[in-house]
Amino acid sequence: MSTRRDFLSMPAPENYVAGLGRGATGFTTRSDLGPAREGPSEEQMKEMLAKRAATLGQAAPSAYGVVEKKEEDEDEDRFQDPDNEIGLFSNGMNYDAEDDEADRIYQAVDDRMAKRRRVRREAREKKEREEYEKNNPKIQLQFADLKRALSTVSAEEWAGIPEVGDMTGKAKRAREARQNTRSYAVPDSVISAAHQAGQLETSISSDSDGTMTNFASIGAAQKSALQVRLDSAASGTQSSISGTATSVDPRGYLTALDKASAVNAAMPIEDINRARVLLESAVKTNIHNGPGYVALARLEEVAGKVRQAKKIIQKACEMCPRSIVVWEEAIRLHRENVHNAKIVAANGIKLNPKAIKLWMAAIELEKTSRDRKKITRQAIDHNPQSVELWKLLINDTEKIEDVRILFAKATETVKLSEELWISYARVSEPDHAQQILNAARKAIPTSAKVWVFACRLQEQSGKEKLCDKIMERAVKALTKENAMLKREDWITQAETCEQEGCPVTAGSIIKSTIGWGLDEDDERRDTWLEDSKHSLAKGMYETARAVIAQATTVFPYSTTVWHTSIDLEKRHGTQATLLDMLERAVNSCPNSESLWLLYAREMWQAGKLVEAREVVSRSFAQLSGNENIYLSAVNLEVEAGQYDQARHFLQIARESAGTDRIYMKSAVMERQLGDLEAALDLCNKGLQMWPGSWKLHAIKGQVYESMSKLKEAQEAFSIGTRANPKAPVLYILLSHIQEKQGAIIQARSSLDRGRQENPKNAQLLCEAVRLERRQNNNSAASKTMSFALQECPTSGLLWAEKIMHLEARTQRKPRALEAIKKVENDPLLFVVIARIFWGERRLDKATTWFQKAVNLQPEFGDGWVYYYKFLQQHGTDEKKADVLSKAIMAEPKYGEIWQSVAKDPKYARTGVEEILKIAIGKAD
């Protein structure tokens, strides 16, 4: 057996410094080193300087290297204390009004300079912080995927996880355990004594005093104590006093006793006795400790000794007559006998006539309104400045005339109470209320609430036009008194007014105060837009509307502000307000293409086709030659069924604008109308002007394909790939045509050529995989997919294809987890994960991932298609209607399944709802 001792029991090696290995080093101070060494004396310094001067052949200095000065050159005042200056600077420390004004000016300049670039600085700091967190992720973020994986662990697997053991000193504990289990031979005397100790006596000893131990009572007492402990544990109450405590906090213990009485749970007997000893010691140590008496009385009350508690509190009233807490506790203990409680309250009030709480307790003891008012009047006589007492007296008064008289007296007595003045105005007539508010403004010139209530009063009286004037006066008056609130506080006041049914007042507040504290050089527009977002998040639409209205007034040429205002009216306004806002927007920004298009679109959706055409004609005058305006006019005529007029607009557009997009839209419309020859003619004319337009080549080939002319279609696509080799769609269309003709090798060659011209293109790589999969060549498809993921590891399209078509069902979820790690946010990948949970019948998780997909990119149509298909099987009618309305509002544009239906000429001029239901049939 090795004689080497365990390392935990070894002595520390020599020169061992604790913590030195991990960089924890100590430091040394002067107290560790002792006093510094005494330097050379003045005589020694002079002698050394004299020797040095002799060596250099110079005159000896007077002292320490300084030549003697004449007496007239001595400056005896050079060490003058600057705090006790004389002469020229004798008045330097007199701080007058000019100095104060200068300090305030400098402080204002410093604040202005610090505030100028606050938004940019915060944005930069936020970006740097995000970059740092991205480069230095926390440990909890690194293990986020593992935490998510824990949700799939079953209860049996949790139970099978082994407990973590303590390996420290394992060998030592094992050695000690072996030593404890050693057996030794026991002497016979020990065995005999143990045998006799286990025997029971059957006779009574002669020296007994005749008493007998009652084992049954002991067992019952133990059972009772155990029951008390179990009841205490079940109710959640535990002793807050440890057995080693030598002192107690009376206030904290008072709170603990409140909790104990609230749950009606008895404390263990030993805890009550221990607490009683501690509290009695605290009271004896300080006989004027009122909270200590209260805590002791509460303890006796919890223990069931109410009489003893009353005695204790009576003694407390004698020893601490000025303690309000003691008298309150005395009134509470005597509350079951109202007569005695009134006597106690009267005695306490005699000694403490200014104690509002005692007066309130005495008022609560009264049952009738008359007696309550009587006591309240006496309390007001002693405490005329108490707002609470005045409110009690007014609340107990029934007649409105008496209430007004009491309010008049209260406001005359307590002139600085905003609450009393405003309540007085509420119960008065409008004309008299205005006089009351005028008096309140004189009494409290720094009160903003009085001004706000005055504005609300005018709104309630129907005089809404005066609200703006009142708030303008309020800003001037409060600024003069230096009592102007912060801009954020004014926004809160406006939101409160809107919540209480005063939207006009809210708008007036915003109009007068939204620019407070902001300078022209500050980024006011962004600040106001952010304020409107916060108000919208709280549901305060009128406040947000007022903020944006002020922004449009100050920045009438900002299209961002107008778009925000239009979006607000579209979501939370009426159709009339929306169209009115759009009219104002196009008048302010007549050169904004987006505003004109939005105006024409909203007018058309409102069913006003004539007005929509007028809007388009107005936009022609402002933006002549703009292709988007022409196309908007074409869409309006097509929706109205006026195809000849649409052709006329397109012809004008081709003559004036003549872009490849105009020719493409012209060909698409002719194709939708069934005139394929005209569509081909337009494509050829457009390609003569724009030979590199891949969309024209694509439409030309698709038209030939519709005419069943596959060779001509293949030739069109092939010419397009040579004219624009950087268009991946043309290679995909060419491979489809070649695959239809049975030329699989040529299809592969076309895709390979497209991948050479467009390296690392996910669409071409995915199409190559699908081509092999359609030929049932899964091994080649897997190899191509492996190469594709090496080229584009962050492509959601490739990961979705791999997970749904090249992986076994049991391996889909691990591959999806791997894809989530590599692809940050991709709606297609979210849809794939939702479909996996859908297949496992985990409907809640599937719903969550579908919602993530449609919220991440609402214009992704495939997300809405699969989500609605899922709801058709597992959703309610309300949920399906809600998702359908959201999809219509989002107006999807992207997605393979969605575009295969939306761009099909058969479904031209089909609404979102119809396209969604048709696309569901194509979703696998």
Explain how this protein is built:
- This protein is 68% helix and 0% strand.
- The radius of gyration is 45 Å and the shape is extended.
- It starts with 29 loop residues before the first helix and ends with a helix.
- Helix 26 packs parallel to helix 28.
- Mean pLDDT is 80; it is low at 63-76, 82-93, 197-213 and 226-266.
- With 924 residues, the chain is mostly helical.
- Among the domains are: 245-403, Alpha Horseshoe (Serine Threonine Protein Phosphatase 5, Tetratricopeptide repeat); 445-552, no CATH class; 825-924, Serine Threonine Protein Phosphatase 5, Tetratricopeptide repeat, CATH 1.25.40.
- Residues 71-84 have a biased composition (Acidic residues).
- Associated with the spliceosome.
- InterPro entries: HAT (IPR003107), HAT_PRP39_C (IPR059164), PRP1_N (IPR010491), Syf1-like (IPR045075), TPR-like_helical_dom_sf (IPR011990), TPR_rpt (IPR019734).
- Keywords: mRNA processing, mRNA splicing, Nucleus, Repeat, TPR repeat.
- Its main location: nucleus.
Helix/strand-derived class?
mainly alpha
Radius of gyration: 45 Å
From the N-terminal CA to the C-terminal CA, the straight-line distance is 72 Å
Helix residue percentage? 55-70%
Sketch the major β-sheet. none
- The fraction of residues assigned to DSSP E strands is under 5%
CATH A-level architecture of the domain at 245-403: Alpha Horseshoe
Q: What would the CATH topology of the domain at 245-403 be?
A: Serine Threonine Protein Phosphatase 5, Tetratricopeptide repeat
Keywords: mRNA processing, mRNA splicing, Nucleus, Repeat, TPR repeat
InterPro entries: HAT, HAT_PRP39_C, PRP1_N, Syf1-like, TPR-like_helical_dom_sf, TPR_rpt
Protein name: PRP1 splicing factor N-terminal domain-containing protein
GO biological process, one term: spliceosomal tri-snRNP complex assembly
